[in-house]
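The records we work with from here on pair a chain with its fold. Each token is a code from a learned vocabulary of local backbone shapes. A record is reproduced here so that you can trace the correspondence yourselves:

_____
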Amino acid sequence: SLWLKGQQQQGLRRAPSGSGRRAAFGGVSARMNPNYTGVLPRPAGIPPGFSGVLPAPNSKNDSDTQWQPTNLNPLLVKDAVMNLRKQYAQEKGPFLSPGDASRDSEAADSKAQEDMDYYQVLEVERGTDEASIKKSYRKLVLLWHPDKHPTDYEEADEKIRSINNAYEILANPLKRAGYDQMLEAIERKKKGMRLDTSLIQPRMSIPKEFMLCPLGHPEKFVRAVGTELRVQSRDDVRLPFREFFSAAKFSLWWLPEVNNMCRLRTADSAGQGIEGGTVLNFLMEGAPTSGGQFCTKDADVVLRKNEDPRYSNVIATASPFSPGAFRFEGAFWPGHYLSYRTPSTICVAGLVDEISDITDFYLVDYGAAYKTMTVDEALLGPVLAHGGGDYVKLSDLRADQSLRMFFQNMMGCSVWNNREFELFF
């Protein structure tokens, strides 16, 4: 009933009591039944070429202005979502989701590990102790310092950047623990091992404000850039710490009609406990089903103040491969998952490509954003506080209280000695 329109429609309305659950469409009625899929035959009076779905939010057709999402009452939303998902589960199987018997999954896991193998970059084995990591880092920095490679400066500069990024993760106990957890998730997925997520309640587990970090890419976060969503690292955009993460703060507005159904929105666009804000919308066209077949098209994603449930409602579920990670499936579009498609695209994928699409996201508590701070960012304030300019005394830096706290709380060690600072700079 959600996918019909008619030129004479006055809006969806509840039938009189005693007549059963019925939705009226300009003289055409359809009684709900167990086999209802959310798509009904096109009634008389519908314009030629009508696909069975109401116009997308970006439609420019003037005649579409009468089809407002306010006509979609909660009862109809619930019925359509539940029936669509029930039929999809019967057709595809209840556990068919990204990572399950998908093509090229092994190749995808190998590629993910290759892309993010910081241990390989530092030429050490997993489980290597801190001293060995530091020793290898010193050796590689001296070997690849750009000043020693005047003829291939750019290659050396790129190499030293990757070495520094790897050391930034592996030298920090908190970041290393999270990184190792990602590696374990990829290994688990590769072996076809699934976590028991039956006791995980997304609504209770997901932070009120969070950052989305795609599985396998600990340096990248989803950011709101204008009306677009992009996946970026700080190396990609070179913004100050606060400015970078202020655009990476999101929240969920939970909906009561269906368990774990919600809308993903930018956290600063609506206060906690207040509906509305700038919401993720997927620009899907057509109907969820056609001729008994489920739609498998991809859809672009935008941010807008539109709450049409067909294009903004998602179902949050726990990742079967990594604790603390979640995935978002289109409520009206079973099998369509919010996906990170390298290098920087966010879309809703109809057929998830296991090589290029990532559907699992760590939802990192926004209050812990400071834990992602790099040594460069931790040094900036103290350097400016002690005069800035071309030079500052290392003794002044080492005595700075904020820097000492950073090393103690984040790096798990005392502040570096002069030799370590010399090597870093």
